[in-house]
């Protein structure tokens, strides 16, 4: 039965990784602007070059 | 939309009708030199993809921006407040660009570095219409960046309230709380399944693992996700008012501690699934309801209208000065189309002030040297100089805004849901106490299980869910129809109104068109052409309207001269024509009604053009329709010239008021409210802003939702004004839907209570009842709001 507990912990851990991913995506502003990024990636050439750290 | 214009004459850049202008390049037509210049600029830098993404994506550049408009950005003090970051190499700044409207805009602005090497990178946030620009300030300065954007048709909007502290962006905490609650809820459900199915009794060690994991997973929900409810409940208790969140917090805590008790004493597995489910579903409702419209701003004051800096004349030199630093005694240079920021005396030039912001009168007023000009007016004819007599913060407009009487007491209307919940709470407490007394007498060992079960099952979350989901969906439907409400409470306020006050100018009428009627001697075709050609020489708004009315042509005007504020005369086809005020043409001043422009030929009066406001197309039907259900008032800053037109339009019962100053308007609303009327005020400009705040609900009309609108409870796109009655009906349906779903939740509660008072509410039963009641209520509210909207054709 120890296997089930192990599996359970593993599954909760995986779910926690997804939670972490969700929080990271909100934090990095991925939901702030839902229009620009999908349009931007269709432009032919890359718009940006080097930028220094904020 | 530009698409309606015939492609043959539509400007390649902006899509506007080119008329008879002959500006061409290769096979492309342009409406003006400005548009052609932008095209050439983009062509030279290989950015013509701009035109492939959308047809005619540009902004018309017929109205040129004054050369030194952005000179104030060279002032370090002003610039420092706008810049977000700066080091030796780079400067970061974000501009608000109201003209952004399509993917072409995005493309062009993000490729700004191709036009000027000084630009390092630009990133557009489409939702907020902002562009974050990073530039190398050794190669290009801030002013040049603003001018570069302006030159391609994206003029940055920089206003006074940007000087203040920047507002924090949308709070994300609630999204995190929702995410955590969802994670915990799903995992707790997963680990409760063996318990539901009765498998776990075989394996004691597994059972304990599941229970303690559940306990651990529910802690973040209790401590983090449920925080909004604690805050709201605490606030309500501080105000000695039992709102809906107080019983919810009680239910959350009772469920949690009862479950902990069961787990620790090994008497059961608790209700962790129900507990986390309640929090999760209620948070969804909250987030849905709180989802505000990012691109709209409901809280504006006069500072959003004022420019950030103004040109001050110091020893004959033009110096840009930030607005708050203007002191009495300085001389301001106000350019054409600029807002007067402070009260002052006209010292040079002719003032031709458009006070539509303040009074609602759409036609400009002439002011002579020596006259006082109040803040908020917009200069419309040439430059003028103004001696400041009052600081910005002491000016007429600012004072009007800040008058103590004009700050309505914060009388937060209380949603009927809260009133309902109060009764609900009392009933629940009564049931719980009677259950307790019953079991205390008969079998005291079952007292606590029974009482806690009652409190768990009777949690008013269904009530809360029904109101938040109904409100959320209604806000969404209204938003789809271009009526954006500030919050959910506004829905109930709209449902309650019985008196609607309309502003006339700009609200019922449109400022962009005038109805022009000619009276007098019949004009031949050539005379009409001559008048149009003469009027075309003048920049006066009335002349412009006249040109539009009569049509542009190529007659040549000789020796014309314009007397600002009076009229214009000139030789056309050998005849001396004159256009202007009655005093200018006839020498008398007898007519005091509406606006007229008189015409004479060779000194002989021909007749006059009278100008009337053009009513929006939907207004007639709307006013007829509303009369049966509501009391109406039309309130106007203009003179009474249109009383009879308006009377026909609005019916006999409607109150008509003319010559109303902003303060009169808010006084009128206050009087109505004293008579226990629930008032809705619909207006457009700053002149209505105070009345809108004073009313129970103020709706600001905007030509397009991204233009600047005064503070209000709602913003409505002017083209949708005709739907107003249907909007109100939808808001009224809101209450019935909430009541219906509330009744449904009571049915669920009665079933649950039947088991709970007997003290045998099993976790399985709770696990079925709780989510199924929540989900069916969500389905009911969504379904019925959508049906209501469909029925109302919204």
Explained architecture:
- The complex is a heterodimer of chains A (54) and B (794).
- Chain A is mainly alpha-helical.
- Chain A is built from two helices and no strands.
- Chain A has helices spanning 2-27, 36-40.
- The longest helix of chain A has 26 residues, at 2-27.
- Chain B is of the alpha+beta class.
- Chain B is 44% helix and 19% strand.
- In chain B, strands 16-28-27-26-17-24-25 form a seven-stranded mixed sheet, with helices on both faces.
- In chain B, helix 15 runs parallel beside helix 26 (763-791).
- The chains are: A mainly alpha (54), B alpha+beta (794).
- The interface between A and B is large, with 31 and 40 residues.
Looking at this protein, list some descriptive labels.
heterodimer; A: 54 residues; mainly alpha; 2 helices; 57% helix; disordered C terminus; B: 794 residues; alpha+beta; 6-stranded antiparallel sheet; 44% helix; elongated; disordered N terminus
Give the secondary structure arrangement, pairings included.
The complex is a heterodimer of chains A (54) and B (794).
Chain A: H1 2-27, H2 36-40
Chain B: E1 23-25, E2 28-30, H1 33-44, H2 49-53, H3 76-82, E3 83-86, E4 90-96, H4 103-110, H5 112-115, E5 119-125, E6 130-136, H6 142-151, H7 173-197, H8 204-225, H9 227-238, H10 245-265, H11 272-290, E7 309-314, E8 317-322, E9 331-334, E10 344-348, E11 351-354, E12 365-367, E13 372-373, E14 378-379, E15 384-388, H12 396-402, H13 416-442, H14 447-457, H15 461-480, E16 483-485, H16 489-496, E17 499-503, H17 504-508, E18 509-520, H18 525-535, H19 541-550, E19 557-563, E20 567-572, E21 575-580, H20 582-586, E22 595-601, E23 604-615, H21 619-627, E24 631-635, H22 643-650, E25 655-657, H23 662-674, E26 679-683, H24 686-694, E27 697-702, E28 714-717, H25 724-757, H26 763-791
Parallel strand pairs in B: 17-24, 17-26, 24-25, 26-27, 27-28
Antiparallel strand pairs in B: 1-2, 3-4, 4-6, 5-6, 7-8, 7-9, 9-15, 10-13, 10-15, 11-12, 11-14, 16-28, 18-23, 19-20, 20-21, 21-22, 22-23
Helix pairs in contact in B: 7-8, 7-11, 8-10, 8-11, 9-10, 10-11, 10-14, 11-15, 11-26, 13-14, 14-25, 15-25, 15-26, 16-25, 18-19, 23-24, 25-26
